[in-house]
Design goal:
The protein is α/β, with parallel strands linked by helices. The protein is about 30% helix and about 15% strand. It has nine helices and ten strands. The chain has an eight-stranded mixed β-sheet, with helices on both faces. A hairpin with a 2-residue loop joins β9 and β10. α2 crosses α9 and α3 packs across α4. The chain is globular, with a radius of gyration of 19 Å. It starts with 5 loop residues before the first helix and ends with a strand.
Length: about 325
Amino acid sequence: MQILSFVNVVNLFQIFASTVIAASGPSSAWNASQPRWEWKPPAGPLLNANRGRYLNLSSGVDLWYTSFGYTQSPKTPVLILHGGNGNSNQMFNQANYLAISRQVILQDTRGQGRSPYSNFTEFHYDDFTRDAIALLDHLNIQKVAVVGWSDGAITGLDLAMNYSSRIERVFAHGANVQANMSIPGLDDPIINSDTGSLDSSIDTHGTTYSTKGNLTARAADTDPYSCQSLSPLPERCGAMSQGVQKMWATEPNWGPEALSQIKCPVWSVDGDHDLEVQRNQADAIAAWVPFAGQLILPQVGHTALLEDPTFFDFVTEYFLDMSYDGQLPYY
């Protein structure tokens, strides 16, 4: 049994207390004239005072990362991946909360946040994925659970598809599987299935298939955050944003064949008022990843993790602590 020192116990108590206090009243972003899903809550500080280091990849890319929390925990470490055009401080609520019970690892995606946009030109999810594996190798961490938001959720799915031995499970919030959301589009695999529900079974190998077909277009992405205050090269922030948006125009480009390669537990999570990623994308992930679960968060939008961190943190930890037999939960 791991015995915590008095100092560690005090530190964990302080972390827990700050979490409870933060949840005891309305958010600082609360505005009675706006519904919660229209708020743009700010990012916040990590409990380790945002202390981090740089990993110089063999490609010459510098990747900022940080790791803290209960490093001797028997629970699997958690890799926390932020959204596009953002930084790790977007995930401060989740990182600070989960650090009470396990080790957390965060990285500023290449070219974003504190990771300078230099020594490479184009942005690709596969590069983000390889960067994450390089970081885990550097830290000598063999397996992680992933909590990802938006682009971070897409990277989490990419990791699960291509590095299955390194990924225990993925909590994917606000991901899309098609750049223009034309697939499945109106051909929603859940709504248009034979039952109109998520009816994956052993006979269907855990997937749900649509019986209809149509197409639609993607809503425009928005960027509520800026890299100006964090980037070592703030003059490159505009070019970075353009580069990320160029990636969004063509990536990802996954169908059921790709997602069926995922062999770990996955929850496909979205806000019920997400105006940036269409609901059919969360449905497609839940339908096409074998035996995936789906969670629609109430009265929140694409930034649900900041709009309602108390509930978001609760369901995240619940998923991370669930017992699984392969991809199927047991109780």
